[in-house]
Amino acid sequence: MTWNEFNPFYLWHLLTRLGEAQILLPTVMVAVVSMLRRREARPLAMWWLALLGAATLLTSVSKVAFIGWGLGWAELNFTGISGHTMFASAVCPVLLAALTTKMPRAIRYLAVIIGAALAVLVGVSRVVIHVHSVSEVLAGLLLGGSVSAAILAWVRLPGGLFGPAIAPTILLWLVLTPLHSPAVNTHSLITTISLTLSGRETPYTRQEMLRKLPTTDT
């Protein structure tokens, strides 16, 4: 492939995969198992899982409410919280902070900033590839960022959380899986659940919601 043939949207599609649960959840589970093995790190693991679970539930409910019942906000073009953005912002800052606990404080702060920046880029990618609106991405950043902020502010990260092989393994996973693993269509599952609960035959769509906006004659 020559540079003239290169499609920059491929990079956005690649970057957006860093918000997929199938990619981030295994890293969370590896981190949590390592934390649970140390008594001083168990509160971190428990709170992280609890808050991440609550954020995931709230995100799913917002999607089900729209797909099944049309509960959105047309003026903000809002049909539900961006799950990729939420997951990236709830996981990446905490994960990178945990991976750098043996390093100087400045490096740990930089790791948190990099994690937050990755989450923002995932959110931007959702808008660029026309999957979510700006309001939906901002909601995901706010919700997921609140999870990370709460963990990093309330729970002390013990030093040396992971063995020498864990950090490079997680980083290698985050680099290689977006390139080589197939994407899982979780939206289809959410749609099925929404239609089953609401009894509708077809899902509500963004176009239906936006058609309800008042039009101005020029």
Beta-sheet strand percentage?
under 5%
The succession of helices and strands, N to C, reads: HHHHHHHHH
Residue windows where pLDDT falls under 50 for at least 5 positions? 1-6
Q: Please state the average pLDDT score.
A: 90
Distance between the termini: 47 Å
Work out the radius of gyration: 19 Å
From the spread of the alpha carbons, the general shape counts as elongated
| Estimated structural class | mainly alpha
Count of helical regions: 9
Q: Mind describing the biggest β-sheet?
A: none
Query: Care to count the β-strands?
Result: 0
Work out the helicity level: 55-70%
Could you outline the blueprint of secondary structure elements for this entry?
Layout (H helix, E strand, L loop, with lengths): L8 H8 L4 H16 L5 H28 L13 H17 L5 H24 L5 H21 L11 H15 L5 H13 L7 H6 L7
Helix pairs in contact: 1-5, 2-3, 2-4, 2-7, 3-4, 3-6, 3-8, 4-5, 4-6, 5-6
Please sum up the structure shown.
By secondary structure, the protein is mostly helical. The protein contains nine helices and no strands. It has a domain of 124 residues.
Account of the protein in words:
By secondary structure, the protein is mainly alpha-helical. The protein has 9 helices and no strands. The protein has a domain at 40-62 and 76-176. The radius of gyration is 19 Å and the shape is elongated. Residues 1-6 have low confidence and may be disordered.
